[in-house]
Amino acid sequence: MALKRFPIGVQDFAVLREDKKYYVDKTDLVYKMVSSDRYYFLSRPRRFGKSLLVSTLQCYFEGRKDLFTGLAIEKLETEWKTYPVIRLDMSIVKYSSKNSLAESLNKILEPQERRFNVKSEPDNHTWGVRMARIIEAAHEQSGKEVVVLIDEYDAPMLDTFGMESFDDIRIQVRSLYSPLKALGGILRFVFLTGISKFSQLSIFSELNNLNVITMNDEYAAICGITKEELLTQMQPEIQALADKNGLTYEEACNALTRQYDGYHFSEESPDIFNPFSLISSLNEQKLKNYWFATGTPTILTKLVKKYQMDAEQFDKGFAVAAEVFDAPTETAQNPIPMLYQSGYLTIKKFHRGKFAPYVLAFPNNEVAEGFTKSLLAYYTKQDTAYSTVVSRVIQGMNDGDVDSVLQVIKAYMSGVPYDAEAQNELHYKTIVYCVFSLATPYLTRCEEKSAAGRCDVVVETANAVYMFEFKLDGKGTVDEALKQIEDKGYLIPYTASFTANGAPKKLNKIGVTIDTEKRTIGEWKVVEG
Length: 529
Hints:
The protein is an alpha/beta fold and about 525 residues long. Helices cover about 40% and strands about 15% of the residues. Helix 15 crosses helix 19 (about 365-380) and helix 20 (about 385-400) crosses helix 22 (about 425-440). The longest helix has 18 residues, at about 100-115. It is globular, with a radius of gyration of 27 Å. Mean pLDDT is about 90; it is low at about 445-450.
């Protein structure tokens, strides 16, 4: 059986269909949107299919019925009316200053002005006026209501977030979007996509009839690929991946799930795979980090450190209230809203009736590994050194050589530039945690089992369990760290752990101090039992 031709990097619906590339049919949801309301906003992470959705809507409103042959909407739509469509892609140019924004907006607006015979005025930076003229001309020349599709509406603000030019950029973009309310009487449909919610653009306050479907259960799967879609539509591709990597079909499904699944965008959301990573993996028949390789969250790692977020919480989860999802990006008091909107956190649990019912955590292994590497590189100011360090930690732990592991980490931390930002206890804990977190998938992952609390780091290998307790100098000694492990009973849950041969695993307590003057590990002691 021939394998599917996946549309890697294709965001144009017409090109996708004409080239007979594979399309996961979302047109039933498209029809529901266009039949139910007029103003919509959808937030999803990058590379999640937002642009393809916008392109699909464009083709639908242009009446290109032939492109929808065989899709759900073919049986749902009976009229196929055509409308003038104005589509603005705000992601096509990077924005760094007020002047570069003007150049970019001219490049976006001038083709639309030529299309509708509107006099182009490149020196006229009253963007709202120019946008209104385009919409009015489209309406007058066609005699029909106008469709406006704005892809990545927030790209200019995301590019300048935290920079001096941010306020200037925001004011200019706000002007561009202002006609969307004033001209509502001649607009058939308005759809905006983005990642974040910038309230001061006035879109969300002025367009009081804007239907925000970001966390709507009905539209949770409108972007991305659900587990059901994967398992019912892509069996040959999964089997090919399995054969190439020496896996069974079930093992391949589990590997794809661990690596790319785990997104949930509402309370009742189905499991959703990152579409870019999933189809890239099936296309190449490899299990790599695809999505993370296309962008690094530099601003987010800075915010994690600025707000002193505990790296361990990304695995355990952040309990948050519903208000967090509506927090305006520019006034948020912590990075959690932006981390969620950007796809680095997702809804993992929902506890109805609780004050903070949502639990946000890493969606999958790809994101966990990629973000941890970025965090580690930012904290240590060393971009790639962690790779060798983690490899040697894995080898040392599997060999039971704790001394070599701590020597490697000590040397790694010693390499942090001395003029790096002032360090605190959380800084050192983050570095150590990230190193062990990256090593964990190659050891034996263990759960939190102690009701009395937990050690700073727990490593379980095939033959042993290691409990690490770290103390900042001046706040505890090696012996006090060992005593805490003993007094808290951290090892008790592991007394029933056995090797593959049925022998009890060796239990080890390791007390470690951090030398703040030398900014690295100080002393340590390993005690068996």
